[in-house]
Amino acid sequence: MEENIQLSIDKLPIKRLDAIEENGLERFPPDLDHDEKRLSLIRRIDFAWAVEKDEQKKKQKKTSKEASTPWQWQSMVENLQLAHQELSVIIDLINTVEANDAVTVAGMTRPKPLPNEALSDIAVSAATKLQCYRHVGKYFKQSAKAFEQQVAREARFYGALIRLQQNWKVKRQRLASIAPGNEGFTFDLFDNSYDPEAINRSSALSTVRVEHDAAGMLAINVPPNSCHSLQFGFLGAQPDDILRKSNINNSNLSSKSYLGESGEESLSDDECVKKSHLLLREVHLAIFNEQVFDLVNREAFNSSTGVSVTGIRENYLQLSLGQGTFVFLSLVPSGQDNQKVEGAVTDNVGNAILPSDTLEGVKLQDAKHSIHKKKKWQFPNSLSYEIYLQQIFHEHIFGRGIGKPISSGTRASGVPAKDGSGLLGHFSMSLSHRIFSSKVLAELENVVCKVPYLQLITNPTWHSRTSSWTLSMKVPQSILRMGSHTKTNIAFEKNAVKSQFWTKVVVNDDCINVEREGAPKVVGLFKGKSEEIHSMNRYDCNLADLPVIILQQVASQIINWLYQEALMVGIKANRDFLCLSFELEQGETLCLVAHVDPDDIDGCISWWLVMEDSFVEERKLHIDITDGASEYRKFLGHLSLDLLYATLMDLIGLCSAGGGQ
Amino acid sequence: MDSQGQTTSLQRLHNVEKVLELAGGVMDELSSPTGPRKEVVQNHCLEFMQLIKDIQGALRDEIKSACEYRPFENCDYGSRIGSEICFKKLEFVMSQLDRMKQTMDEYHAAV
């Protein structure tokens, strides 16, 4: 700028009196607001030169244009522009005031409202209030429906949550970044009453998130095939397809089958809750199965249990229990059991205990005898051992928290250590016993099938390592006794009349013990107590000899019975182990001999009638002696007990008739 | 546990709609140009309070029933597993019985 600078000097900023009243009251001019001060300062600056410059420019522009008719809105535009300028000044002022918070207003007096202004103020405020009321009323009515729907949705969700909460633990985590519809609920399926030393593995399945499905209802999503079930089996056995398949179909709860039904709006709330409950049950059981598998793994590597590991893969453990028994335990995703089983069978070494003598002689028989052929021994049902394994682990480890007493003495034989170290050993011993006793049972059944007058009864022992059976034989009543009804010596008669003979087979672990009634003791007869009448004979035997021994016991019981009958009639007879002999007149001996053969198809006990003269009294009978010179043998066949009794009576008649002559 | 006629007990809260309608009605009444009618407003308010009381009662019942479930210390997860094992045993026994029955039927049919 080339022009001269002009200075103006303010008045001193002292307060000058405006007026003074008679009573000495001084009136000062009202303090200027900060903004007024600024305004006045701004006004002081003379912008005339700049404005003139602008005006000159505008005039030049205007003169260059042609003079046009003034636009009719021109004045309005100018007024608006002026108003705009004033408003912008005010806005700047307000911004400055806002930013500068040290500003205080010294004081302002409100202009006194005029009466009509007051009235119009009241009217305006009343109208505004009424308008607000109407607005609120409309808002309430509009939102009533929506609110009810929202409440219904929430009620469904929380109703389902409350019902599930009655059975499962629900935990809530208040997340900072909550997506709408996710309140942070989870189901906690971890059982903290478990023994802490026993459980290592906390499953990833333990926490299940609660989510909303499309309709806002509670939904649980479990990834498919994440739930595993325990499977136990014998290597070399045919998979028990029938049993397993029916169980799988009944209990297949995988979420796949439910996710496929999306869009099922007709699922009622009850069904939704039940579906979620089933899923939670499945997950809970899967966690337990994983823990059992883990524990078995740990125990199996502990060499003191007598069980050794012969194979290991992911989720698969193969054990050898001794005596050539191989079993496997695996975790399979629910619903895929069978494929794994077949794979296991083909991959691994088969079991060596498959019996080899099963089907000999079958081809030589016709259909009539087919029921008598030896049944091929099969492994006992593996599903029952799976359940047993789960049960013993559950009771001894997981059931402790509730204060359940240690199993009673009848069951556990040194089993429950708190950390479960003896459980696998106990299980394997029980399993070995069961396998062995099933073989014993097969042999007994084979025998009993063929002998019509023998009955096989199983005696429950309630002990996992002991089994017991009774073979009982009912003999026909003596003709002589059927007519007598003397009441005087009924006790005597009861004890003397023996109509049932029994042989007991007891298996302890893998020892077989056969026990039977022996010869009656005469002293005991008069005492009248049944235990003392008969002596008990006990024998130990092994599996291969069992059928023969059983048959021999039965045959000797028959011989005893015939002997007693003969004595009742008054005939003196001699009794050997399997032979009953009568003496005839000329020193000849008539013998009734029993022959036992467990492999005989028609019946196991057959009878021979042998007559010998006195020269061969000392010689015992042997079947393979075919020299018939000094003895006469007749094969009687497989006689029923009635026929045998009749034969005995005939022989007795023969003896007495011969004696009479 | 559920009240009769309702599938989930929280559906006793269906009265919330009525509540809001009443509130809206009161507002309308207040905003009417001729001034609010006292008895109408009073009736509405009474009904409103009654409904609020009902809703509160329903919520209290639900919360009580939710809190009545076993606290975490008395967790029954162990016995739940026991029940699952029993269930498996029952299934097994039933299948065995079915097989026995099947054998018997076959026997009778053959005879």
Automatic annotation (TrEMBL), chain A:
GO cellular component: core mediator complex; mediator complex
Alphabetized UniProt keyword annotations: Nucleus, Transcription, Transcription regulation
Keyword Nucleus: yes
Keyword NAD tagged: no
GO BP annotations, alphabetical order: regulation of transcription by RNA polymerase II
Designated name of the protein: Mediator of RNA polymerase II transcription subunit 17
GO molecular function: transcription coregulator activity
Top-level taxonomic group: Eukaryota
Similarity comment text for this entry: Belongs to the Mediator complex subunit 17 family.
Origin species: Acacia crassicarpa
Localisation per UniProt entry: Nucleus
Cited PANTHER family: MEDIATOR OF RNA POLYMERASE II TRANSCRIPTION SUBUNIT 17
UniProtKB/TrEMBL annotation, chain B:
Gene Ontology BP annotations: regulation of transcription by RNA polymerase II
Subcellular location: Nucleus
GO molecular function, one term: transcription coregulator activity
InterPro entries, sorted: Mediator_Med11 (IPR019404)
Pfam family of the protein (one): Med11
UniProt keyword terms in alphabetical order: Activator, Nucleus, Transcription, Transcription regulation
A cellular component annotation (GO) from this entry: mediator complex
Family: Belongs to the Mediator complex subunit 11 family.
Subunit structure: Component of the Mediator complex.
Physiological role: Component of the Mediator complex, a coactivator involved in the regulated transcription of nearly all RNA polymerase II-dependent genes. Mediator functions as a bridge to convey information from gene-specific regulatory proteins to the basal RNA polymerase II transcription machinery. Mediator is recruited to promoters by direct interactions with regulatory proteins and serves as a scaffold for the assembly of a functional pre-initiation complex with RNA polymerase II and the general transcription factors.
Name of the protein this chain belongs to: Mediator of RNA polymerase II transcription subunit 11
Source species: Acacia crassicarpa (northern wattle)
Highest classification ranks of the organism: Eukaryota, Viridiplantae, Streptophyta, Embryophyta, Tracheophyta
